[in-house]
Amino acid sequence: MFLAFSFSCFAQQNKMENTFPQATLIFGAGFEKFNGLNSRVANLPQYKTLPGYTGTVELGWLKERHRFVSNVGINLGSSMSGDRNQKSSTLHSAGAHADIGYDVIGTKMLMLYPLAGIGYEMYQARFYKDNSGVDFNDVLQSAALQNSISSVSFRNSFFTYRLGIGVAIRSQKYPSSSIGLQAGYTGSFSSHAWKSNENQDLNNAPVDKLSKIYVGLVLACSPWEMMKGAHGHKE
User: Fold this and answer.
1) In 3D, which of 227, 187, 218, 221 has the Cα closest to residue 28?
2) For 129-145, how does the pLDDT look when each residue is reduced to its tens digit (9 = 90+)?
3) Fold for the domain defined by 2-7+18-234
4) Strand ranges (E), the chain
């Protein structure tokens, strides 16, 4: 993705002299609770409820022109909490978003930009049981027991809206790169029932609505500007 961003912008370099495009890598966390699913799981002692957080990594794009900001990204998330050898649960996510904003400061070295946008997020919830008390020979001899010790997974997905704020700082020595923070809220337009791991509808399935707070460290650079500078230095 970084190469695609770089080549695309390098090809249009002469047309984009007054823009501020940067490829971004964001390390962050999301804090969400799926109360509908957790309330069902809480009634079953063999399962553990989902954690309320996910660690996230995102590849994206940040561009400023005439103080208007565009922000696009694709992200992956995981609670990194599931342990196959004991009773546990884990939450995985994947999503994409597109935001617009406005730089309220407007200086070369510092950006402060409120953001609003839309996106799409998919979640997988997986639950493991503690099978340490199950006899190995019994598993070999019983197909039903083999199925009963397997983990169970559910999926859900949401069209989302996003409200947030970001800050980016550039140094005078390396103006083509920046470091910053983004934080905000992501909510879904409607509630959705959880489905099977194969995305099949289930009768009497719990229903949830996405409500997430996110925060991330934003590392950004403009590879085409760095290439231009390196080429000029060589000459």
Assistant:
1) 218
2) 888 888 898 888 888 88
3) Porin (2.40.160)
4) 20-32, 53-65, 68-78, 88-102, 110-128, 152-169, 177-188, 192-193, 195-196, 207-208, 211-221
